Amino acid sequence: MFIELTFIDNAIDVNNVNVALFQKNEAMGFSDIAIAWRVIKNCGRGWSHTFRYPMGFEVGVKDSYNNVSDHKRATNGERWKAVLDASGNVLVKDSVPSASAKDVEVYNGLGTGSIDAQIYKDGKLLAQKTGVAPEQKAVFQFKPTLWVGVVAQVEEGQAMNSAILSDINTEISLLGIRKANLVMTGGGSGPNAEPYKFTLEPIA
Questions:
Q1: 204/191 Cα distance (integer angstroms)
Q2: Is 35 found in the same domain as 11?
Q3: pTM
Q4: Are residues 41 and 64 in the same domain?
Q5: Which of 2, 22, 24, 156 is 20 to 30 A from residue 34's alpha carbon, by CA?
Q6: d(CA 123, CA 115)
């Protein structure tokens, strides 16, 4: 299951801006670093860019040796753990569920070395918690919303600092949406410039 979204650039100026879409990890609060899940580039005025927002997601880890796990399809309420077996470090689903049915947990069950716990959506990095020490866990929780805004010099999969995030204040609810246009308006230069605005227009 997925939601089909089409970004449409209806801004009044001709500036070539980048548009970032991301989610916030509600379990960590606003102090957590947000990852640019998608960055739409070079989409000119009147042009569009269609992408999918899957309802599901995957978990993965990177260990202290820079080994990267395969991605495991996960659901809320599950706890995944990195452990050492006969083949080396592996990522497996724990028999113990997460503390909350709204969360997904990634536990470091390795004897030594920190891990980076990662969440992927549509094959792209959505969120991560770095430096999870042995016997510690990362907790992830997401609302069915996307944050969207104009950014500069941000790449997909890259962490966005607080200065960038402070300029992004548009949260789009995806509840009940199957297909919609995400329309950007505003912009311009000089005294007539307007803030960029993003509007979700559901398609029946």
A1: 38
A2: yes
A3: 0.91
A4: no
A5: 2
A6: 20
Last residue of one domain, picked from the residues 125, 140, 155 = 140
pLDDT, one tens digit per residue, over 84-126 is 999 999 999 999 999 999 999 999 999 999 999 999 999 999 9
Handedness of CA 160, 41, 141, 164 (dihedral sign): positive
The CATH number of residue 182's host domain is 2.60.40
3-state SS string over 37-72?
Answer: CEEECCCCCCCEEEEEEECCEEEEEECCCCCECCCE
Q: Which amino acid is at 37?
A: W
State residue 165's pLDDT score.
82
Which of 106, 123, 140 marks a domain boundary? 140
Enclosing domain of residue 185: 2-54+143-202
DSSP state of 176: T
Q: Rounded to whole angstroms, what are the CA distances from 144 to 2, 61, 112, 133, 172? A: 12, 23, 36, 29, 9
Q: State pLDDT tens for residues 30-88.
A: 556 799 999 999 999 999 999 999 999 999 999 999 999 999 999 999 999 999 999 99
Residue 170 confidence (pLDDT): 93
Pick the closest to residue 129 from 104, 95, 98 (CA basis).
Answer: 104
Give the pair of three-digit tokens for residue 151: 């950014």
Task: Inform me whether the pLDDT recorded for 129 exceeds 90.
Answer: yes
